[in-house]
């Protein structure tokens, strides 16, 4: 895709994974430094192995993380550095506000790991991971003038982690953390949610922690309904299959539910099939509330411009629609109301719109 900016004005991004946004150079550096075997020695080779050029299944995509995460997870220095470098990358993409998400447990090296990780640097707990990420993000915010907040992920396949995740959200809510997410393979729990996730989200509601959930990406509309009615989510990650249930979609539009759309990601994970209309076209035509996001740019070999180009060139998106969706993204952010208003005002001024 061409690198000419499709929308050369300030942008907001709400759905991007920290562990899916690491610079290949950083992975190679820590692989060598920590003695972690990687299947490549150069950036180009690593990108070819990690990156995707054609669609895979969602589990196939998720397996990519196992290739390179052992070089990063468990290293205090690496965890802080990837957070700092993430902010630098977003500054270059013209992002003025971003919410980045990650699983504290998958960046730690505790003994409950589902796969073996490097243990040489001593135990790094999920709690310390959050502290280190916060430090990296705050230093990046200072140096690159991008406002950045974080969302902590529960993982569908590890419900025993979820209560700890919500407690970390509460502990660090004044230090970048603004919300909780449920991520991972949507089909893994079958037709119902694990109790650990439900209890964590109940605690999030009680504690005033903002909530988003990956749902309706490859799963059915019922997964979205479950996220809304059981987990009381305030935003839906992806949500494409909501359109299979017109009553649900109409209800969520009335309630101004925000859909975190990742167009290029949806193509490569097989969540959207070429030859069919992408859900985001319906969202646009209905003037629904949604954002455009990269999801995992390392694996998708993309930048935020990739998603803007895709929607502009292939789906008829205009600059006016880009302005509208970014203002909706700002209004649907997990910032406190006063900071949200400042962000909206900042965008309106940049877009030449009256407040």
Automatic annotation (TrEMBL):
E.C. numbers: 3.5.4.4
Recorded topology in the membrane: Peripheral membrane protein
Protein name: Adenosine deaminase
Species of origin: Echinops telfairi
Domain Adenosine deaminase: residue ranges: 10-349
SUPFAM superfamilies: Metallo-dependent hydrolases (SSF51556)
Gene name for this UniProt entry: ADA
Family from the record: Belongs to the metallo-dependent hydrolases superfamily. Adenosine and AMP deaminases family.
Annotated catalysed reactions: adenosine + H2O + H(+) = inosine + NH4(+); 2'-deoxyadenosine + H2O + H(+) = 2'-deoxyinosine + NH4(+)
């Amino acid at each position: 895709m061409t690198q000419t900016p499709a929308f050369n004005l300030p942008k907001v991004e709400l759905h991007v994974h920290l562990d899916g946004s690491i610079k290949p150079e950083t992975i190679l550096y820590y692989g060598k430094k920590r003695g972690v075997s990687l299947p490549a020695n150069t950036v180009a080779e690593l990108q070819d192995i990690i990156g995707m050029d054609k669609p895979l299944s969602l589990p196939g995509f998720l397996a990519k993380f196992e290739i390179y995460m052992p070089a990063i997870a468990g290293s205090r220095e690496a965890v802080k550095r990837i957070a700092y470098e993430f902010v630098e990358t977003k500054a270059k993409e013209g992002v003025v506000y971003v919410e980045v998400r990650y699983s504290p447990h998958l960046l730690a090296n505790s003994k409950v790991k589902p796969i073996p990780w490097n243990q040489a640097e001593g135990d790094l707990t999920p709690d310390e991971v959050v502290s280190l990420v916060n430090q990296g993000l705050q230093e990046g915010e200072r140096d690159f003038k991008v406002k950045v907040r974080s969302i902590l992920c529960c993982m569908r396949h590890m419900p025993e982690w979820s209560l700890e995740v919500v407690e970390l959200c509460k502990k660090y809510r004044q230090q970048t953390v603004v919300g909780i997410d449920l991520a991972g393979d949507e089909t893994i729990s079958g037709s119902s949610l694990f109790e650990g996730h439900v209890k964590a989200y109940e605690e999030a509601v009680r504690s005033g922690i903002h909530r988003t959930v990956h749902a309706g990406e490859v799963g059915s509309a019922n997964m979205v309904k479950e996220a809304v009615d059981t987990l009381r989510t305030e935003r839906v990650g992806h949500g494409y299959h909501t359109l299979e249930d017109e009553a649900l979609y109409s209800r969520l539009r009335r309630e101004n539910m925000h859909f975190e759309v990742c167009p290029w990601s949806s193509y490569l994970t097989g969540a959207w099939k070429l030859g069919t209309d992408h859900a985001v076209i319906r969202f646009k035509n209905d003037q629904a509330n949604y954002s455009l996001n990269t999801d995992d740019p390392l694996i998708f070999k993309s930048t935020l411009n990739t998603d803007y180009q895709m929607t502009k060139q292939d789906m008829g998106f205009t600059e006016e629609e880009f302005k509208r969706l970014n203002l909706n993204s700002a209004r649907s952010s997990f910032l406190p109301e006063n900071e949200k208003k400042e962000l909206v005002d900042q965008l309106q001024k940049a877009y030449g719109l009256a407040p």
